[in-house]
Amino acid sequence: MNAAGTIDHPSTHDPQKQAPMTSSLSEPTGSATPLVSTMGANHSRQNRTREMQLIPEALARAHMNERMREADTERRAARLVAARRMQRRAERVSLRARRALAMAVMQ
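Predicted structure:
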């Protein structure tokens, strides 16, 4: 069955394999655009396809950047907690040393 396709059921969906549109004699001259080049449509379609293929990669990159920011924030928080802990320890040691010095002076 090698019948030419219809508008509803074209024989092929590839625009390059389809017959170019021609204006009919019943239409006035200049009413329709001249033979349309499908080059721009194909280029646009290829760009859109490339963009669609790159979407998961972009999502993965954004997810990875978010994870890196979270890890950096957690590292900074852990360093801050450790610094506060060391500061309290240093204050306790300083107070103990001051008391020991005062006891030594008093005796």
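Summary: Helices lie at 39-106.
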